[in-house]
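Inverse folding, one chain.
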């Protein structure tokens, strides 16, 4: 087991990758759009046009955040928050889906959230603050000795294929990187964060759920949360989207690769074959450790990796049904 500075990795083990396919018997229920009448959308319209991707003010050169380029995107619709536990539970109840973490029997939990009964759990070499916890899953994020997952929280311990299957069932998909950044900017243009350019700090400005204090031992939780926050917490950006910075890493549709033909870029892409791209950072990010809660920041991980700070958000190519109403459970605007 290894990982980047941001997330632990199962390492792309061949046995784990082979387990990514949905179990026989429920494939018909997970076909594209099968849950469109069951999943309760809570989304907003994102206007298309010229979108910015990357930055000319890079902070982590090794991630090739620069240069900033322009791309055209079409109109799309994006969930206001990351997929919640309640939304994912509806998917599981409708299809019988079993996540990869459940099939493999374990997932990664941050050390300060590990129940006392698991105090001797195996750590990750080089990332000792992560622990392998048997039985940690989307509905028991700390393992069987921890509390059940709360409905309003982002669903975590989600592998890339789990996220893709939910999105297809819901009639949507995972976003492309340019779509994710376009949505995160909220109409503000070339900004560092969804709210603008002001940096969060450890004193009096906490607009998102990240780490405050001395990582990895002391989390002051000045933003109100020691772990994940509800999917609709903190002020939304200009498009009405919550937690595009911090809270949980979000899987995207794309492989992790850098936009560079340099020798270093080619080496990174060769070493990253098979990895998928994640955006947004998490509640464990801090400027001194993992300054990846900026819009242009990015990381990659093997698609079989699951952890307590990794989830996803769904986008849609089609508008919701005409005249949606909150009574029907659809809140798209």
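Residues assigned per position:
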């Amino acid at each position: 087991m290894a990982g980047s500075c941001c997330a632990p990795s199962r390492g792309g083990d061949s046995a784990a990758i082979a387990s990514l396919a949905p179990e026989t018997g429920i494939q018909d229920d997970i076909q594209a759009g099968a849950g469109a009448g069951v999943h309760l959308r809570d989304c907003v319209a994102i206007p298309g046009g010229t979108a910015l991707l990357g930055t000319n003010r890079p902070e982590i050169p090794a991630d090739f955040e620069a240069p900033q380029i322009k791309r055209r995107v079409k109109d799309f619709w994006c969930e206001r928050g990351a997929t919640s536990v309640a939304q994912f539970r509806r998917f599981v109840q409708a299809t019988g889906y079993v996540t990869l973490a459940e099939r493999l029997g374990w997932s990664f939990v941050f050390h300060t959230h590990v129940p006392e009964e698991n105090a001797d759990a195996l750590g990750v070499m080089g990332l000792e603050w992560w622990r392998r916890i048997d039985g940690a899953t989307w509905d028991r994020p700390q393992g069987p000795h921890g509390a059940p997952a709360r409905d309003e929280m982002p669903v975590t311990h989600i592998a890339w294929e789990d996220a893709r299957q939910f999105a297809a069932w819901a009639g949507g998909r995972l976003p492309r990187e340019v779509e994710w950044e376009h949505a995160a900017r909220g109409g503000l243009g070339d900004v560092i964060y969804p709210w603008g350019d002001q940096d969060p700090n450890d004193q009096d400005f906490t607009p998102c759920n990240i780490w405050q204090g001395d990582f990895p031992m002391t989390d002051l939780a000045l933003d109100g949360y020691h772990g994940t926050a509800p999917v609709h917490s903190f002020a939304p950006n200009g498009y009405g989207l919550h937690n595009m910075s911090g809270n949980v890493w979000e899987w995207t549709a794309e492989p992790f690769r850098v936009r560079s033909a340099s020798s270093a870029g080619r080496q990174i892409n060769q070493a990253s074959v098979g990895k998928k791209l994640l955006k947004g950072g998490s509640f464990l990010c801090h400027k001194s450790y993992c300054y990846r809660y900026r819009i242009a920041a990015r990381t990659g991980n093997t698609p079989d990796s699951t952890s307590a700070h990794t989830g996803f958000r769904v986008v849609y190519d089609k508008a919701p049904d005409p005249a949606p109403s909150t009574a029907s459970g659809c809140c798209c605007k």
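The first helix runs from residue 14 to 18. Confidence is low (pLDDT under 50) at residues 323-330.
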